[in-house]
């Protein structure tokens, strides 16, 4: 898998600490929802740093999207969020990953469970569903600290309104909006049981987020009766 030259075409603010970067990669070979790429930056003195980022949308010619959240004391993400300018170069390697993917021709119900920025590859699946005209029912459970930490806020609101077969439920861990029922809490059995698919429907399940979050949710799902082989997980650490 070779490194390919790319440039920033545009950017969108998602939250105070996260932005979506639209990159043009000449000759991009296309990708599947759920895959990721490596981005590599090179300093004037030749020093290089690379990080992996999930692709945020389906294939679109030579353009790809990644959503980057600034990591405190990070080496790459603060530059990409705060200093990387339209027209600036970067190197891209990918697409990478062949397990944590959703193919539009699949017909099983889909349950997506996201923790924080783990929503990015799951949003690629949501967008691919719409782009391909799939009628597969999707449910997304999205756990975030506060309403201000939600990625793709307006797009998700419109998709729930306009896309038949897509449901989104939020779990707030620190601060909830006034119209949200209950108190802020970490995701638990009641959330997964209420907003997910019952195991007898045999949904495909995709869980993405920090390691502790992913392990907790996967255990809850298996405990509810979902076969472990149908629960696909992807986790990230502090520099993910």
TrEMBL record:
<keyword id="KW-0411">Iron-sulfur</keyword>
<keyword id="KW-0408">Iron</keyword>
<dbReference type="InterPro" id="IPR001433">
    <property type="entry name" value="OxRdtase_FAD/NAD-bd"/>
</dbReference>
<feature type="domain" description="FAD-binding FR-type">
    <location>
        <begin position="1"/>
        <end position="102"/>
    </location>
</feature>
<dbReference type="InterPro" id="IPR008333">
    <property type="entry name" value="Cbr1-like_FAD-bd_dom"/>
</dbReference>
<dbReference type="InterPro" id="IPR017938">
    <property type="entry name" value="Riboflavin_synthase-like_b-brl"/>
</dbReference>
<dbReference type="GO" id="GO:0016491">
    <property type="term" value="F:oxidoreductase activity"/>
</dbReference>
<dbReference type="InterPro" id="IPR050415">
    <property type="entry name" value="MRET"/>
</dbReference>
<dbReference type="InterPro" id="IPR017927">
    <property type="entry name" value="FAD-bd_FR_type"/>
</dbReference>
<keyword id="KW-0479">Metal-binding</keyword>
<dbReference type="InterPro" id="IPR039261">
    <property type="entry name" value="FNR_nucleotide-bd"/>
</dbReference>
<protein>
    <submittedName>
        <fullName>Oxidoreductase</fullName>
    </submittedName>
</protein>
<dbReference type="GO" id="GO:0051537">
    <property type="term" value="F:2 iron, 2 sulfur cluster binding"/>
</dbReference>
<dbReference type="Pfam" id="PF00970">
    <property type="entry name" value="FAD_binding_6"/>
</dbReference>
<dbReference type="Pfam" id="PF00175">
    <property type="entry name" value="NAD_binding_1"/>
</dbReference>
<keyword id="KW-0001">2Fe-2S</keyword>
């Amino acid at each position: 898998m070779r490194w390919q030259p790319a440039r920033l075409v545009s950017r969108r603010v998602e939250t105070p600490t996260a932005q979506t970067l639209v990159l043009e990669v000449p000759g991009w070979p296309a990708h599947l929802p759920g895959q990721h790429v490596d981005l590599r930056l090179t300093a004037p003195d030749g020093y290089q740093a690379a990080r992996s980022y999930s692709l945020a949308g389906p294939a679109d010619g030579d353009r790809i999207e990644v959503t980057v959240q600034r990591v405190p004391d990070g080496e790459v993400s603060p530059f990409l969020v705060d200093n990387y300018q339209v027209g600036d170069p970067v190197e891209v390697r990918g697409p990478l990953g062949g397990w944590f993917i959703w193919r539009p021709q699949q017909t099983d119900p889909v349950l997506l469970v996201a923790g924080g920025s783990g929503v990015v590859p799951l949003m690629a699946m949501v967008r691919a569903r719409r782009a391909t005209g799939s009628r597969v029912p999707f449910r997304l459970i999205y756990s975030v600290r506060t309403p201000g930490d939600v990625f793709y806020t307006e797009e998700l609101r419109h998709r729930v309104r306009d896309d038949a077969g897509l449901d989104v439920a939020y779990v707030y861990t620190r601060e909830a909006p006034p119209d949200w029922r209950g108190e802020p809490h970490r995701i638990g059995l009641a959330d997964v049981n209420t907003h997910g698919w019952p195991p007898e429907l045999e949904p495909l399940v995709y869980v993405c987020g920090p390691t502790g979050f992913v392990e907790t949710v996967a255990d809850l799902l298996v405990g509810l009766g979902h076969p472990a082989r149908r629960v696909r997980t992807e986790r990230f650490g502090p520099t993910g």
